Amino acid sequence: MFHTTNRRALGYLASTLLGSCLAASAWAQDAESSAREFIITGAGPDLEANIRAHVSLPELACDAGGYILARNLPGIRQDIVRAGRALGYYQIQHVTRFERVEQCWQLQSDIDPGVPVRINNINIEVASDQQFFRSALSELPIAQGDQLNQASYERVKTELSSVAVEQGFFDARYERSQLQLDLVENIANVDINFEPGPRYRLGNISIQELDALSPEFISRFLEIEEGDYYSSSALLELRDSLNGSMYFNNVSVTPLITQAQNQAIPVDVTLQMRPQRVYAVGLGATTDIGPRVRLDYEDRYRNRQGHSITGNIGISPVQQNADIAYRIPMSEPATESLEISAGFLAEDTDTFRNTTSKLGTTYSFINAWNWRQNYFVNIQHDESRITGEKLVTDLIIPGVSLNRTRADDALIPTRGWRLYGEMKGASDALLSSESFMQFNLSGKLIRTLGPARFLWRFDTGTTVIDEVSELPVSLRYFSGGDQSIRGYKYESLGPVNEDNEVVGGKHRLSTSIEMDFFVAENWKLAVFADTGNSFDEFDDFELKTGVGVGVRWLSPVGPIRVDVASALDNDNKLRLHITMGPDL
User: Fold this and answer.
1) Which residues contact 345 (CB under 8 A, 6 or more apart)?
2) How far is 195 from 128, CA to CA, in rounded Å?
3) Are the beta carbons of 181 and 188 closer than 8 angstroms?
4) Which of 16, 44, 218, 354 could connect to 384 by a Cys-Cys bridge, CB 3.0–4.6 Å?
5) pTM for this entry
6) Helices (H) and strands (E) in the chain, counts
7) Cβ neighbours, 10 Å, residue 143
8) For residues 63 and 36, what is the distance between their CA atoms, to the nearest angstrom?
9) Which burial class, exposed, middle or buried, applies to 279 when counting CB atoms under 10 A from its CB (0-12, 13-18, 19+)?
């Protein structure tokens, strides 16, 4: 009986304790969930933000006693003073205390910042090689009359030190670095004397040897050599040049600063080759040419001199093409090349049928103004049938082109532009069946306007020739289609013959404006207007205009566009246009 009673008593005691613990836990959770606040009065926005950044509320329970809270006050008060002085408030006064509010405590601080200290004189001296520091000194984050901000003062020193490291002044030091305070006048004087010291040079540049590419070829990417002055930007340019060459999938350019001897820093270049051969199959569709299958092949390094081969075949209901190109890197392989190419193109539209066979060579490089410049010569054979007539031409076409693209994003830019210009021609005195000169200029501009993006495109071309009928179809101008004037069928616009059949023109003018804006993540709506035409005489041509709306899906491989456009002179009939690819 006694044993049973004790078991009952123990059970009752255990249940009571468990209930008490659960109740205490629930009360503690309620207490902890009560907001602990830091109330600041009298401070401006900057000072308040800095105080909050310096002061951390103690991790104490809401039921913490007054003595425990009071032990945290000295540290908090010191942090408030430091926060004020960092912004020039050296006469800051405050009353800070803990107060009980409902079920928890809060920290209350009443601030009187006082008169701030202001910058009086700025004296910054660089002992030598001042030319490297002029930009930093011309864009100082402090100026005479500014309220003192110690972070800005430290940023001056950080900028000078950063420039020194970037330019190879690894022994740079501050002979003098003072922030002189006069708390009677509430002014501060900045006095800095910076000694860059000797400028280090590049030591031995060690490039990893590879079986696929010869050391002589890889060394042609280097625009630096042993003995040059050290420059971080030059090493970054080397890395970017090797990365952009398409030979390597991993590039490491490492200055071995700790191994410097006699103020010369060795550099280690480590490379990892990309796969040599690449095969790809692509499927796509546009309204102009319909569904398309594309086969691509690339041999990125055919030999140890970095020669490469690319080839592609494209098949669609309207166009079939086959192209192959052999590329030879020149003395500056990152930007300069000679390419020998051959290609075949067949087109069958509602307007014409044409086959073009081409053999050509192109010398390409980046010129002094950072434009891609190409000199080319193409041997071209065309067989065309248009308006029931057959035309066969053989041309040797030399020419030159310039192009440049700048964008803040390769696939979906919010700001950027592209410009392309070309001049080419042929002469019957130089083994060509016809003589002509042709000039082409096209471009695109993208800007952000508020919540929308503005896109402007233009395309112009002109031909110097007596009769357009002497030109092969591949060199005549037609308008209309996805990339020209939406609302009209592909290459359905241009001069017509007596039977109202489009025959193509000597000139082309077209332009387009478009606005698009987000309606959901990765989805945009667009409105646009296109206008222009192809024609034979500048004093006798008619503008054709199409307007419409579209949807943009920002896919991982670039925008896919679906547009519905109306040709304004075609009884407002609607036409669907589908395109894909980068905006520039």
Assistant:
1) 319, 320, 321, 354, 355, 356, 358, 474
2) 7
3) yes
4) 354
5) 0.77
6) 8, 25
7) 9
8) 11
9) exposed
pLDDT tens column, 165-214: 999 999 999 999 999 999 999 999 999 999 999 999 999 999 988 999 99
What domains are defined for the chain? Answer: 38-112 (3.10.20.310), 118-195 (3.10.20.310), 201-273 (3.10.20.310), 277-580 (2.40.160.50)
Nearest CA-CA partner of 353 in 200, 236, 491: 491
The answer to whether 371 and 404 have CB atoms below 8 angstroms apart is yes
Could you tell me if residue 538 is left (phi over 0), alpha (psi between -120 and 50 degrees) or otherwise beta? alpha
Q: Are 466 and 436 in contact (CB under 8 A)?
A: no
E strand or H helix at 293, and its extent? strand 290-299
How far is the C-alpha of 356 from the C-alpha of 325, rounded, in Å? 16
User: Buried b / exposed e across 233-252, counting CB within 10 Å, b at 16+?
Assistant: ebbeebeebbeebebbeebe
Q: Is 161 helix (H, G, I), strand (E, B) or coil?
A: helix
* Residue in 162, 153, 85, 166 with CA at minimum distance from that of residue 123: 153
C-alpha to C-alpha distances, 85 to 112, 184, 186, nearest whole angstrom: 13, 15, 12
Which amino acid, 517?
F
Q: Is 212 helix (H, G, I), strand (E, B) or coil?
A: coil
Query: Tens digits of per-residue pLDDT, 420-470?
Result: 999 999 999 999 999 999 999 999 999 999 999 999 999 999 999 988 888
The span from the CA of 211 to the CA of 551, in Å, is 49
**Structure tokens, 136:** 């930093």
In total, the chain counts a number of residues equal to 584
Query: What would the 3-class secondary structure string for 427-452 be?
Result: CHHHCCCCCEEEEEEEEEEEEEECCE
Strands 389-407 and 248-255 come out as unpaired
**Coil, strand or helix at 135:** helix
199 phi, psi to nearest 5 deg: -95, 125
The CB-side HSE value for 429 (13 A sphere, CA atoms) comes to 1
Q: Are strands 264-273 and 201-207 parallel, antiparallel or unpaired?
A: parallel
Contact present, 248 and 273 (Cβ < 8 Å): yes
Roughly what angle, to the nearest 10 degrees, separates helices 150-166 and 232-243? 60
